[in-house]
């Protein structure tokens, strides 16, 4: 055991539906994985291979807890996403084997400082401060694949204060879950505890303090948080 000179940080985790907690190692996120969202952001979805960014594991907001509005933005956007929880290590994973590495699924929200991201894009700078800030990853409970299987189609939606904002279908992912896992595993070794946010459908928009965000993915679950 190391002789830590300060108290080691806690291991972030997500409750598992039915009991227990899923310890989180890394959070990978796919950009522009739904054609209509790629178009609303000004890109041609036919021409782009997948790309990834990440969030720190301790950016998670779980159990329906409130999400503090972050500093340094006046354009905080919601992105509802299917989240994949990795349960088995792998590198260079074949598409056909990819789902064997999945522990379960959850609904999550990739909160984004859109104004800061726009500046980063324009200046060809990293997205970290636009995407990887504190409390930037609200996520619902993880449901084991052993219980629900591997969802490949069905509505994914987000409402703000009860009004529909985003609606899509996970069948429209440009890189479906097995393909995304396989591709990402050519870049890094995936490990148990990794989460993958798989991109958002169209309809992203700003939220304000006091707004209640409710995301739903059919056959998976929900994510709920209030911005405060
Ligand atoms: Mn996203």
Supply database-style keywords:
228 residues, alpha+beta, Fumarylacetoacetate hydrolase, domain 2, 4-stranded antiparallel β-sheet, globular
What would a concise description of this structure say?
The chain is an alpha+beta fold and 228 residues long. The protein is 14% helix and 29% strand.
Strand and helix order:
EEEHEEEEEEHHEEHEEHEEE
Q: If classified by CATH, what would the architecture be?
A: Alpha-Beta Complex
CATH structural class: Alpha Beta
The description of the largest β-sheet is: 6 strands, mixed
Bound molecules: manganese (II) ion
> Spans with pLDDT under 50 lasting ≥5 residues?
none
Nearest-integer average pLDDT: 97
Number of structurally distinct domains: 1
How would you characterize this protein structure?
The chain has 228 residues and is of the alpha+beta class. The protein has one domain: Fumarylacetoacetate hydrolase, domain 2 (Alpha-Beta Complex). The protein has 5 helices and 16 strands. The chain has a 6-stranded mixed beta sheet. Strands 13-12-15-16 form a 4-stranded antiparallel beta sheet, with no helix packed on it. A two-stranded antiparallel sheet has the order 1-2. The chain starts with 12 loop residues before the first strand and ends with a strand. Manganese (II) ion is lined by residues 29, 79, 81, 110, 197, 199-200.
């Amino acid at each position: 055991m190391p002789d830590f000179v300060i108290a080691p940080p806690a291991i972030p985790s997500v409750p598992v539906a039915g009991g227990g907690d899923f310890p989180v190692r890394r959070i990978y996120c796919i950009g522009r994985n739904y054609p209509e969202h790629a178009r609303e952001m000004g890109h041609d979805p036919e021409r782009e291979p997948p790309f990834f960014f990440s969030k720190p594991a301790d950016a998670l907001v779980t159990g329906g807890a409130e999400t503090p509005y972050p500093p340094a933005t006046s354009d905080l956007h919601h992105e509802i996403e299917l989240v994949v929880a990795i349960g088995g290590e792998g590198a260079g994973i074949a598409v056909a084997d990819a789902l064997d590495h999945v522990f379960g699924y959850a609904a999550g929200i990739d909160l984004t400082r859109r104004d800061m991201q726009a500046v980063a894009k324009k200046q060809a700078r990293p997205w970290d401060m636009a995407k990887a800030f504190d409390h930037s990853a609200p996520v619902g409970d993880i449901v084991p694949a052993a219980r629900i299987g591997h969802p490949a189609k069905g509505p994914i939606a987000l409402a703000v204060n009860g009004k529909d904002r985003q609606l899509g279908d996970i069948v429209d992912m440009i890189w479906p879950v097995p393909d995304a896992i396989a591709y990402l595993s050519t870049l890094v070794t995936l490990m148990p505890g990794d989460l993958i946010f798989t991109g958002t459908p169209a309809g992203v928009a700003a939220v304000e303090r006091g707004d209640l965000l409710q995301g739903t993915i059919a056959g998976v679950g929900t994510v709920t948080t209030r911005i405060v």
